[in-house]
Amino acid sequence: MGYAAHAPATPEETRLARAMPHRHTHRGPFGPEPVPDTLLYELRDHARTEGADLRIIDEPEQLRLLADFVHAAEDVPTRGSAPRRRDLPVRRHGRGARRGMPSPPGRHAARRP
């Protein structure tokens, strides 16, 4: 077995690969407290700097519609045979722990109710 022929990375792919160690993702649960407006505006400004548009959705009807879209999208089959994150077994830590990260492949723990 060996590697197939491949094309060299494009400048954009190289830029994205170099940015990966500097990215941060919060994977823990969020509380019910609202995000302060000052932080929302700061995040929106950072998104604009990166050429993106962060839309702040705070109207109840808009939030309901967004939730409906997200639920509908979760039910759309994806290509490939990999299980979706929500279908993977989940590690729990301590009594009454909330959902955590999926267990690593090959180390699947039994699901608990």
What report would you give on this structure?
The C terminus is likely disordered. It is extended, with a radius of gyration of 19 Å. The chain is mainly α and 113 residues long. It has a domain of 26 residues. It has three helices and no strands. Helices cover 33% and strands 0% of the residues.
Blueprint of the fold:
Elements: H1 11-19, H2 37-49, H3 60-74
Task: Give structural attributes.
disordered C terminus, mainly alpha, 113 residues
Number of strands: 0
Percentage of residues in helical conformation? 25-40%
What is the mean pLDDT?
Answer: 76
Strand percentage lies at under 5%
Structural Rg = 19 Å
Largest β sheet strand count, sense and barrel closure:
none
> What sequence of helices (H) and strands (E) makes up the elements?
HHH
Helix-and-strand structural type: mainly alpha
Give the overall form: extended
Q: How many distinct helices?
A: 3
Low-confidence stretches: 99-113
End-to-end separation in angstroms reads: 42 Å
Compact summary:
It is built from three helices and no strands. The chain has 113 residues and is mainly alpha-helical.
